[in-house]
Amino acid sequence: MVLAILGPAVLCFRAPAQSIERAVAAAEALGAHTGVAVCDADGHVLYRHRATEPMAPASNMKVLTAAAVLHGLGADYEFKTKFRLQGGRLVVQASGDPNWIHETEHAPERVFANVAAALQRLSVREIAGIDLDAGTFVGPARPATWPQDQLYTYYCAPTGPFVLEQSALVVGISAPPDRGQADVYLVAPSADLPLRGSIELVDSSKGATYGASDTGDAVAVRGRFYRKSPPVSIRTAMRDPAVWYLASLRQALAKAGITVGVGITGGAAGASADTLVYEHKSRLASAMLRMLEDSSNFDAEQCLRVLGHRTLGDGSLAGGLLALEQEVKKQLGQVPEGVVLADGSGLSRQNRLTAGTLVVALFASCNGPGGAVLRDSLPVAGRSGTLSGRFGGTNLVGRVRAKTGWIRGASSLSGLVERADGTRRWFSILMSYDQKQDGLNKDLKQLQEQIVQAIDGTGLER
Question: Does the pTM exceed 0.90?
Answer without folding.
Answer: yes
